[in-house]
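Is this the right way to post structure tokens for a design question? Let me know if I should format differently. Anyway, here goes:
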């Protein structure tokens, strides 16, 4: 009977321990006190949206060579492919797509320009003068140009010059807060169709 009492006591203790153990816990081959600690990855919270934004900022800025430019299917204007694996540039960038001929534009000259303006953030055409009546007139050195990037971007252009220009937001329409493109990096394909030299 004593043995029976001991057996019942051991069974009761075992049942109590089983009730206190977490469900589905697998037995461990490690000795007591040697259970592995939670992994470092499990202890760290998942990155927040702000941290992910910081990772985007760690990417290299795009160059003018990273932007692809092709003639539009309709033959009027250009299609631009904005890269996704680099960030918008913070300085004005240019790339010659087609050389022009004749005298180079200088300060004070007036340029007649056909152009397409593409928003960096969505890659959509915002303005396009190709195939339209009339061109944009740009006077180099003008104190109040359409956007400040024109003066620097079109220096030295010749008649027939086709140029890719990436304009950071602070050189675009930043001075016109009412403009929907005021806080947008712009990609411009500009073609000089005429130059009127300064008198």
């Amino acid at each position: 009977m004593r043995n029976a009492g001991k057996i019942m006591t051991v069974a009761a203790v075992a049942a109590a321990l089983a009730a206190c153990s977490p469900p589905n816990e697998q037995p461990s081959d490690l000795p007591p006190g040697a259970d592995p600690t939670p992994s470092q990855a499990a202890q760290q919270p998942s990155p927040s949206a702000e941290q992910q934004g910081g990772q985007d900022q760690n990417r290299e800025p795009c160059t003018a060579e990273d932007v692809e430019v092709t003639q539009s299917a309709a033959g009027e204007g250009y299609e631009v492919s904005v890269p996704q694996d680099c960030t918008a540039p913070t300085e004005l960038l240019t790339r010659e797509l087609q050389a022009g001929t004749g005298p180079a534009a200088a300060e004070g000259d007036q340029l007649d320009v056909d152009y397409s303006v593409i928003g960096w953030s969505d890659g959509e055409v915002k303005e396009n003068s190709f195939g339209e009546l009339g061109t944009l007139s740009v006077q180099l050195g003008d104190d109040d140009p359409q956007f400040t990037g024109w003066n620097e971007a079109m220096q030295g252009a010749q008649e027939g010059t086709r140029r890719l220009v990436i304009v950071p937001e602070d050189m675009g329409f930043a001075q016109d807060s009412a403009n929907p493109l005021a806080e947008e990096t712009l990609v411009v394909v500009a073609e000089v169709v005429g130059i009127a030299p300064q008198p």
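Format looks fine. Someone answered above. Worth noting: Strands lie at 68-71, 78-81, 93-98, 110-119, 125-128, 136-139, 162-167, 186-196. The radius of gyration is 33 Å.
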